[in-house]
Amino acid sequence: MRIEKPEGKTGVCGVKTMMGCLLALAMLVSVPAMAQLNEVAIEFDEHLGEIVPGDIVLIDEDGNEVLFSEFIDKPTLMTMVYFECPGICVPLLNEIADILGKSRLDPVKQPFQFVSVSFEPKDTSEMAKTKQENYLKLVGRPLPTETWRFFTADQENIDKLTTALGFKYKRAGKEYTHPGGISILSPERKIVRYLYGTQFLPFDFEMGVYEASTGTVRPTTARLLQFCFSYDPEGRTYVFNLARVVAVVMLTSVAFFIAFLIYSTRTRRGKEARSDGRR
Question: Domain for residue 279, yes or no?
């Protein structure tokens, strides 16, 4: 006996099987994709427009305790570093010295300051003093000492500051894995802009000072670049994260294809149902 397929049901099982395979594929792809997305534990979580608490206590180059609210009284460009960092802290601080040397801004006529705070609680004020002296010499032009300050802090105050800035880092053996960048604050301690990486244009720095002086919050257009690049702790540099980008592209492609498959299947079923109704 020959069994005929009922009309209007052609290919439904095949479509369901294909959709099941695609869904399974999407789940397989999503696992590494989510791992890549969750890997960004060492980045800036932007807090644009938020006020950094003024009760954070830092220790200056002379070993004195100072309140955050006491010295953030002008446009401030802030970096989170640690003083024995063998990685991106060195090129980051060298870049700041280079920018300060090239910039046309005069900290006397246009008040501003750089502030570098160590997130290693073992770093000392003596180390901060040495860093300040060495990097001010590297600038290559005479600047008031207070133009670039170096601070340390205990773990409690480090946590309060890094949380307020959205600066994420983690220990990697005897070192730390952390992002490179600058947080720009207004005299009211409002976060107005982020600059990412270890290389900047003097124009970005000058615009950051101007925006901070007016309290203008500037969205960070480099977020896409930060997503596409991640920090390699072994190479101690930023590298293109191909796996993360490919994972997101694959997920998006699979999602669009499944949506197209569902739409085309429903459309065909509707046509078949109307065709059967006219018979």
Answer: yes
CATH number where 197 lies = 3.40.30.10
Residue 27 tokens, joined? 């789940």
* Number of structural domains found in the chain: 2
Q: Does 255 lie in the same domain as 175?
A: no
Mean pLDDT of 185-213: 89
- How far apart CA 60 and CA 8 sit, in angstroms, is 80
Dihedral angle sign, alpha carbons of residues 82, 87, 91, 92: negative
**Position 150 confidence tier, pLDDT thresholds 50, 70, 90:** very high
Give 118-186 as a DSSP string.
Answer: E--TT--HHHHHHHHHHHHHHH-S---GGGEEEEB--HHHHHHHHHHHTB--EEETTEEE---EEEEE-
- Whole domain around residue 168: which residue ranges? 57-219
Distance between CA atoms of 72 and 219, rounded to whole angstroms?
A: 22
Angle subtended by helix axes 89-102 and 202-214, to nearest 10: 80
How far apart are alpha carbons 209 and 113 in whole angstroms?
A: 9
Cα–Cα distance for residue pair 46/181, rounded to 1 Å: 12
Give the chain's radius of gyration (CA, Å): 27
Decide the pairing of beta strands 148-151 and 113-118.
parallel
Q: What is the largest CA-CA distance in the chain?
A: 100
The angle, 0 to 180 degrees and rounded to 10, between the axes of the packed helices 242-278 and 12-38 is 160
Tokens at 254, concatenated: 């699979």
pLDDT tens digits along 98-127: 999 988 888 888 899 999 999 999 999 999
CA-closest candidate to residue 92, choices 160, 46, 138: 138
d(CA 61, CA 149): 8
